[in-house]
Amino acid sequence: MLTPTTHGSAHDNKDFDDHIIAPNIPDHLPIEMDQGYDGVQNEHASIILPYLKTKNGQLTEKPKKQHGKIASSRIRGEHIIGLCQRYCYVSNTYRNRGENFEDACMLTCCRLTNFY
User: What Cα–Cα distance (Å) separates residue 103 from each residue in 46, 56, 98?
Assistant: First the structure.
């Protein structure tokens, strides 16, 4: 899902709340997120967050296996983001002030990534 662009200093959780994303996603689809979204798992049934070990402890075998599955599926998304960054618009600062132009450029970069 591609949401409107925001500044990098905006917190992930606030951005998630501002755009009201979770109600628009069907319940049967899993939503995989990172720890920046801690706390939103109570709002939607299928939100999946990675496990963190305790301060002085280790994860047990079951959470380790689940964390490995989550990490292996999330890495695909990270690779797609990396592919989008080969278009310099995504990774460099762009100073155009046109209304919704940033979103149109990002959508174009995503479409080109899907094309290749």
Answer: 27, 43, 10
Distance of CA 35 to CAs 16, 55, 71, 106, Å? 13, 16, 12, 24
Residue 55 has which token pair?
């301060």
Q: Decide if 45 contacts 31 (C-beta within 8 A).
A: no
Phi, psi of 97, rounded to the nearest 5 degrees: -105, 10
pTM listed for this prediction: 0.57
- Tens digit of pLDDT for each residue in 30-74? 877 777 677 777 777 777 877 777 777 787 888 888 888 888 888
Residue whose pair of structure tokens reads 């995989």 in the numeric block: 32
